[in-house]
Design brief:
With about 260 residues, the chain is α/β, with parallel strands linked by helices. The chain has helices at about 40-50, 65-70, 70-80, 110-115, 185-195, 210-220, 235-240, and strands at about 1-5, 20-25, 30-35, 60, 85, 95, 100, 120, 125, 130-135, 150-155, 155-160, 165-170, 175-180, 200, 225-230, 250, 255-260.
């Protein structure tokens, strides 16, 4: 399996970056686009890297935030066939605080051509022998809570419960590889639920202080038999701190490719 970061907050190459995530995944059976960043940058970088997005046969949106799904409409203009899997709650009213809207472009809901491409999921979907989309196994408490994020419903604001988040599980060559966007439901919870051999995605630690609490998370993650390729919302400084406590963690920057 080959995974290339089309968009990530950082890069080791001479590429423009943005706060967001987009991964191009090549398996024995599939060419997958996982998230699209917040703009058309994912497509521009794909072109820079010689990746033809018209060959993608499956797109997965990890959750309904702009920095992961902002490029979805652009993707439909570049690719006329790949279904887009997203949670049924992806088009909710999601905010940072009560003023900054961070959800998807709701105009797309009324776009007939866009709607034809969307496959809404409720929880778990088996796509084929290799691919599954998995939802949280419970609303297990996550001690870092909503991190200041909210959703609006019936005119009132509530702390985010991340009901719109799901994960892509890929089974190939005897390994179970879990792809997560931001792990809002809690990276420890996610590891406990699914026990993958490899996890690729953000840990949502970027606002965490570099202290014993974060060290404890690192030790707990290191206790799982898993190799991690993290990015985006983990935070660069937090990643460097975690390397003191995690033996199998790597950073995936924009333009990087990993072979699993």
């Amino acid at each position: 399996m080959k995974i290339t970061a089309l968009v990530e907050n950082t890069t080791q190459k001479d590429f423009p970056v943005e706060h967001g995530l987009s991964l191009f995944i090549e398996t024995d059976w599939h060419r997958i686009l996982f998230d699209t960043g917040q703009s058309t940058l994912f497509a521009e970088n794909a072109k820079r890297m010689g990746i033809d997005l018209s060959t993608v046969d499956l797109c997965v949106l990890s959750h309904g935030h702009y920095d992961h799904g902002g490029g979805l409409k652009e993707f439909t203009l570049l690719n006329d066939k790949a279904p887009i899997y997203m949670n049924r709650n992806a088009f909710g009213f999601y905010y940072h605080g009560e003023e900054k809207y961070i959800g998807l472009n709701r105009d797309w809901i009324d776009d007939e051509e866009f709607r034809k491409r969307v496959v809404y999921t409720d929880r778990n979907v088996v796509i084929d022998e290799q691919l599954s989309i998995l939802g949280p196994k419970s609303q297990k408490a996550y001690e870092m809570g909503s991190a200041g994020l909210c959703f609006r419903e019936d005119g009132c604001f509530f702390p985010e419960d991340f009901r719109h988040e799901h994960y892509l599980m890929i089974s190939e060559n005897g390994k179970r590889i879990l792809i997560s966007g931001c792990s809002h439901q809690g990276i420890i919870n996610i590891m406990d639920w699914f026990r993958p051999d490899v996890l690729v995605g953000g840990f949502h630690f970027m606002k965490q202080e570099l202290n014993e609490r974060l060290a404890g998370y690192g030790r707990e993650l290191d206790g799982f038999d898993c190799t991690y390729y993290t990015c985006h919302c983990t935070g660069v400084e937090q990643y460097r701190f975690l390397t003191k406590y995690m033996s199998k963690v790597h950073y995936l920057s924009e333009g990087d490719t990993v072979i699993i």
